[in-house]
Amino acid sequence: MNFVQPIRDVEAIVEIKNYLKDTNERDYVLFVAGINAGLHISDLLSLRVGDVKGTHIEFLEKETGKLQRRAINNTLKKALNEFVTGKPDGEYLFKCDQNGKRSSTGNSPMDIKMVFIMLNRVARRLGITDNIGTETLRKTFGYHLYKQQQHSLWMMKEWFHLKSELEVLRYIGAIDDLERNKHDYVLDL
Asked: Residue 176, exposed/middle/buried by CB under 10 A (0-12, 13-18, 19+)?
């Protein structure tokens, strides 16, 4: 079974962001939100403009039914501010039409399949060969949070609804990294 992977390479993340910013503002903001907030894709797609106007994203988590809050960092805030200007609070943040573009009429969100197709199209266009899926956004968030702040495992365990810190490491791809590099570890006493 092939599991989807996080995007480990920061340069690849920048390349994807630049490509999306130049080609599709909605997809750019979706990507930035996905890798900076770590929400499950169904929660991300259910967000409305009013949910992201403050300092936190507030949403009812589909998996648990609980109200959740996630801080909005500077990168995400900048992308959101430009994107939501002039839009009503009740509008879905990531609207679509039949062409997968932002719709000016109606108010239906993108579906998960559309996001999957978009992410894979962009990844292949940019030469990324890892298995990419909608969970890639959330895994990328977790992977880079772990790399920057290893003490955050307990928090990710709660966010991702996993039973152990080992499951978190598996989910975000850190175990794969250890397996791939295990022959490089040397103890020199």
From this structure: middle
Q: Are 35 and 140 in contact (CB under 8 A)?
A: yes
Assigned token pair, 37: 């907030």
Domains of the chain, start order: 10-133 (1.10.443.10)
For residue 98, count other CB atoms closer than 10 A to its CB: 6
DSSP state of 24: -
Which two tokens mark 147? 């790399």
Read off the pLDDT band of 5 (50, 70, 90).
Answer: very high
Output the six-digit token pair for 68: 């959740």
Q: How far apart are CA 108 and CA 93, in angstroms?
A: 9
> What does the radius of gyration of the chain's CA atoms come to, in whole angstroms?
17
Enter the DSSP assignment of 106.
S
Plot region of 150 (φ>0 → left; ψ -120 to 50 → alpha; else → beta): alpha
- 36-70 pLDDT tens trace: 999 999 999 999 999 999 999 999 999 889 898 99
Read off the pLDDT of residues 108-167 as tens digits, 9 standing for 90 and up. Answer: 999 999 999 999 999 999 999 999 999 999 999 999 999 998 778 888 998 888 999 999
